[in-house]
Amino acid sequence: MSSCEFFRALTRVSSEGGKIVIVKMVSGDNVLSDIVINGKSLLGVATGGEILELANKALSDGKAIETVVNGVKVILEPVEPRPTIIVVGSG
Q1: What is the pLDDT of residues 33-55, one digit of tens each?
Q2: Whole-angstrom distance, CA of residue 13 vs CA of residue 38
């Protein structure tokens, strides 16, 4: 998956207002990214039960987690959507 496709998916889910976790898995020079929303992998990369449990923990704690799972460095970053403020009026 290209970075353009990743950011397109990220923009779509964040605009829907859900809480999400960005998952990065680093193995050597390879970096894979995924988005976890409602406890499920959006892009099908982070499918391991342990990673999904860590994503839920990162979301409930409200802070990033960095750990190693099966020899792969995993970084989980919770993201909460920011509310959009629209001001209408004159003057």
Answers
A1: 888 888 888 878 887 789 999 99
A2: 11
Q: Which amino acid is at 11?
A: T
Q: Which two tokens stand for residue 20?
A: 């999400």
Which domain covers residue 50, as residue numbers?
A: 3-79
> Is 90 a domain residue?
no
- Give long-range contacts, CB 8 A cutoff, 24+ apart: 69-74: 71/27, 72/25, 72/26, 72/27, 73/25, 73/26, 73/27, 74/23, 74/24, 74/25, 74/26
User: pTM score, two decimals?
Assistant: 0.76
Number of domains in the chain: 1
CB 56 within 8 A of CB 75: no
d(CA 46, CA 85): 33
| Residue 91 resides in a domain | no
Residue 59 lies in a domain: yes
- Tokens in use for 72? 């792969």
